Amino acid sequence: MNERVLMAARELGLKVDMTKFERPTRTVNEAAEAVGCQPAQIAKSIVFVADGDPLVVIASGAHRMPAARLRRGAAG
């Protein structure tokens, strides 16, 4: 999958640097530890599909992203 992302970025003319970590970075705390920063400095994202359109939500690692509330916001 990483190669597909890099190829797509290159086709769009984007320069992307991808880093693979030895340990998992599934959570905000794991990601912050891997890069040596505070959890609040991590940007986390979630993608919803609303009426067939993608909605990307990005938040600080210090904040919760309640799915039910985001769904209500996506619907209007």
Number of domain units: 1
DSSP helical segment count: 3
* Computed CA radius of gyration, to the nearest angstrom: 15 Å
Strand percentage: 15-25%
Mean pLDDT, to the nearest integer, reads 84
Describe this structure in words.
- The chain has helices at 2-11, 28-35, 67-75, and strands at residues 43-50, 53-60.
- It has 76 residues and is an alpha+beta fold.
- Strand 1 and strand 2 form a beta hairpin.
- The longest helix is centred in the first third of the chain and has 10 residues, at 2-11.
- It is flat, with a radius of gyration of 15 Å.
- The protein starts with a helix and ends with a helix.
- The mean pLDDT is 84.
Please outline the helices and strands.
Layout: H1 2-11, H2 28-35, E1 43-50, E2 53-60, H3 67-75
Quick recap:
With 76 residues, this protein is of the alpha+beta class. The chain contains 3 helices and 2 strands. Helix content is 36%, strand content 21%.
Provide tags for this entry.
76 residues; alpha+beta; two-stranded antiparallel ribbon; 2 strands
